[in-house]
């Protein structure tokens, strides 16, 4: 077995495309967890990439490249989402006035790389990173095996009711707003019950003579 190369990895445009394609293949097979790949998916990407390209990169080198690509994508996405930019076709650069470019680069230095050239393989990177949606402190994708939501973004329930009337669910399964609503209703029921008991008790007390 060849010894892994721990030196800094070199990535040509073709190697970059090969890596993205292999990662996308694993994502389509359900190998994504949140904003990362599962361990089994990483192992397959590493095996196939090293065999096809003729290198022996290790997991750290692949993960570093993944993080770099994701950072590029986030920078590009922020750039093309600016007001007035409109749709940027594949392979096209972003057109802005020099003054606006200077302002954006001052606030986002990493965007400088896209002033005169677009993000390579932006369509593929959209598929790889664009479907990950942040929700609170968690990140979910349709391929995330830890995702408590179904494919339509709903909370699962065998009765098709996301919040059953019987309080049998775990607090961790229910959004904060639902927990607050549940506590409020419980408090209201208790208050109403106490009021009824007090009224019944007063009804049996003989009047003072």
TrEMBL record:
- Any idea where the Myb/SANT-like domain is? 10-104
InterPro entries given in the database record? Myb/SANT-like_dom
This protein is called Myb/SANT-like domain-containing protein
């Amino acid at each position: 077995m060849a010894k892994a190369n721990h030196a800094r990895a070199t990535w040509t445009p073709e190697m970059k495309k090969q890596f993205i394609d292999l990662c996308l293949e694993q994502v389509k097979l359900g190998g994504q967890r949140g904003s990362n790949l599962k361990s089994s998916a990483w192992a397959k990407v590493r095996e196939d990439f090293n065999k096809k390209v003729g290198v022996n990169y290790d997991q750290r080198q692949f993960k570093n490249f993944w993080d770099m690509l994701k950072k590029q994508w986030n920078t590009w996405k922020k750039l093309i989402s600016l007001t007035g930019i409109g749709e940027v076709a594949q392979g096209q650069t972003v057109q802005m006035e020099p003054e606006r470019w200077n302002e954006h680069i001052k606030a986002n230095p990493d965007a400088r790389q896209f002033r005169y050239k677009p993000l390579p393989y932006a369509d593929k990177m959209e598929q790889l990173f664009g479907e990950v949606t942040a929700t609170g402190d968690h990140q979910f994708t349709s391929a995330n095996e830890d995702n408590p939501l179904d494919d339509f973004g709903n909370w699962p329930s065998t009765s098709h009711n996301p919040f059953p009337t019987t309080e049998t669910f775990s607090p961790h399964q229910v959004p904060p707003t639902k927990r607050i609503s549940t506590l409020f209703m419980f408090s209201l029921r208790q208050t109403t019950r106490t009021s009824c008991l007090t009224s019944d008790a007063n009804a049996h007390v003989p009047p003072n003579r």
